[in-house]
């Protein structure tokens, strides 16, 4: 009963230890993940903040108002929409004038410096209408500005989105109003001009917009930084798992060594069969400390180096698990001189008997219940190493016809006279 309770307690303690180890591992992983996430978030936020501040773009929309005479009804028509977008280096101000295209159809893109615009003689202000393509925005705007255009309208041609406009870059040309309009609006004005209809264009400032961009360099840098942090965290986690695995393997190996050493030690301990009339069968004799039951004839007992004896079936599993005496907690490995981390010795050290100390339990027997070689059941290795025998006390000196056994390096059979 006590042995089962002890095993259950050991099993419970082992399970509690495993649960604690699992909880510690989970807490370590959680803290690692949380710290990594917080560090990555702060780092990425700071990097993005720095780069987005440097990549801010301010741009303005433009209201485009076109006025012309309808050739069918001969009435004035006005169309106004916020479809334009000022160039990056354009003057941010209002402008107006007659819409004018390049004179020659071959020069409609205005990429040639000699491009001529068909400006009416009575027009004091005019606005150049040029399609996108074949050269830079700067060249188109420059060629129109050299001929005293009040403003330049470039309509977006060839874009996947017909209504898309962009902020045109035209460095060096900053003294003229330049806007981009969608392709449908530009073709509408061009169609009216091709029909020789005078179109007056009014450009006014629209909405101010502030757009933030993250440059490709910043994205790459932030991504690499995040990946490096994750690799470091993963490496630390792998190292932690490896260490835990090594510790678990080392603990298992140590348990196996201790188990092998305990088996070796148990094989060297004395075994005795209780016979009828032995002192152990008397009611006042101590019970087995493991099962709390008394000794009966034909019970096989194991005698430990500390002179305590127990049922063999009770104490052997205990010794395999604990390697100590259930009563006095003496370590049988140390008592027998067996190192737990090395091969067990074949012989008991010569000073073993002196290191054991005086007997604690005494067993006597008459000639008819005397311990004999057949009843002891000691294997040859035990007989050669001289495990201590239970000696008689002074009150039970050997009488005639009795046999006494004393502790020595081997068995001495002394027959009384």
UniProtKB/TrEMBL annotation:
Keywords: Membrane, Metal-binding, Signal, Transmembrane, Transmembrane helix, Zinc, Zinc-finger. It is a single-pass type I membrane protein. The chain crosses the membrane at residues 219-242. Residues 288-329 form the RING-type domain. Pfam families: PA, zf-RING_2. InterPro entries: PA_domain, Znf_RING, Znf_RING/FYVE/PHD. It is found in: Membrane. One of its GO terms (molecular function) is zinc ion binding. Signal peptide: none annotated. SMART domains: RING (SM00184). The keyword Transmembrane applies. It comes from the Eukaryota. The keyword Metal-binding applies. PROSITE patterns: ZF_RING_2. GO terms for cellular component: membrane. This is RING finger protein 150.
């Amino acid at each position: 009963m006590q042995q089962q309770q002890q095993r259950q307690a050991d099993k419970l303690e082992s399970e509690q230890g495993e649960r604690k180890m699992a909880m510690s591992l989970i807490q370590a992983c959680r803290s690692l993940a949380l710290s990594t996430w917080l560090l990555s978030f702060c780092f990425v936020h700071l990097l993005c903040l720095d780069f987005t501040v440097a990549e801010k773009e301010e741009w303005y929309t433009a209201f485009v108002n076109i006025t012309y005479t309808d050739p069918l009804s001969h009435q004035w028509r006005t169309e106004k929409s916020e479809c334009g977008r000022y160039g990056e280096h354009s003057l941010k101000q209002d402008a107006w004038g007659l819409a004018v295209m390049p004179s020659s159809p071959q020069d409609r893109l205005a990429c040639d410096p000699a491009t001529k615009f068909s400006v009416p003689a009575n027009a004091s202000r005019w606005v150049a209408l040029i399609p996108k393509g074949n050269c830079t925005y700067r060249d188109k705007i420059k060629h129109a500005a050299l001929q005293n255009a009040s403003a330049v309208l470039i309509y977006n041609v060839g874009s996947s989105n017909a209504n898309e406009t962009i902020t045109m870059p035209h460095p060096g040309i900053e003294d003229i109003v330049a806007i981009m309009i969608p392709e449908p609006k530009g073709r509408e004005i061009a169609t009216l001009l091709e029909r020789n209809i005078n179109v007056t264009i009014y450009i006014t400032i629209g909405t101010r917009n502030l757009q933030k961009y993250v440059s490709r360099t910043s994205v790459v840098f932030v991504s690499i930084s995040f990946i490096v942090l994750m690799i470091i965290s993963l490496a630390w986690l792998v190292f932690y798992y490896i260490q835990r695995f090594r510790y678990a393997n080392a603990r298992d190996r140590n348990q196996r060594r201790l188990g092998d050493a305990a088996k070796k030690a148990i094989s060297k301990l004395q075994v005795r069969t209780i016979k009828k009339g032995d002192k152990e069968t008397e009611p006042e004799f101590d019970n087995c400390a493991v099962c709390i039951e008394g000794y009966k004839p034909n019970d096989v007992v194991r005698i430990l180096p500390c002179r305590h004896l127990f049922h063999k079936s009770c104490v052997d599993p205990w010794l395999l698990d604990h390697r100590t005496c259930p009563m006095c907690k003496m370590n049988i490995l140390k008592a027998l001189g067996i190192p737990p981390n090395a091969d067990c010795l074949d012989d008991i050290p010569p000073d073993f008997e002196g290191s054991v100390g005086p007997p604690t339990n005494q067993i006597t027997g008459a000639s008819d219940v005397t311990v004999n070689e057949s009843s002891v059941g000691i294997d040859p290795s035990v007989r050669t190493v001289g495990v201590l025998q239970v000696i008689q006390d002074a009150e039970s000196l050997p009488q005639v016809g009795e046999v006494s056994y004393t502790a020595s390096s081997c068995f001495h059979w002394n027959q009384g006279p």
